[in-house]
Amino acid sequence: MIADAKLTGSIAKGISVARYMLDPDAKQQDSDVKTMQKAESSERVLHIETDLANPILITDSPKASAQSFIREIVDWNQRNRPGKKDSQSQWEHRVISFHSSDSQKLDAGTACKLARESLDMVAPGQRPALFVVHGDTAHLHVHMLYATVNEKGKIFNTKTIAFGSRLWRAWKLSITCIV
Fold first, then answer.
1. Total Cβ atoms within 10 A of residue 29
2. Residue 1 pLDDT > 70, yes or no?
3. Which site in 42, 44, 119, 149 is 20 to 30 Å from 86, CA atoms measured?
């Protein structure tokens, strides 16, 4: 299992990333999203969950759902940091990919649960989050997009890449024993 593909950025980029998560075939201009897209086949959405945000149904418009979810993140961040400086990025995106042998043992719901546990360990506190499980490849993977601000107004510092990377690696080692 690996945690990779860290992305942060503008609100518009957040909408593009969320839309990709919900509809991998959507044509988009963002270069990071184009890198994640595959030319030969699209990623199949197996499972969608949200925390502290409106649920997203697979029948909902991916574009409208992405816009609504990012709006919820921005509102959450402002509501939980009244009168304080905004975080540099409103959101962060990560991907948890499971080894192909682990993918055979996991279903989409369990993969999503493990991704949620990783987020709780690395970025403690409650925050809106979107989890989308993709399963078109030999390895099941979960895209996570979440607010950088928790319920106490604390910013998950996306600048400290070394610290964040150490936490993701520590979580990876602990999860290996579970799967």
1. 8
2. no
3. 119
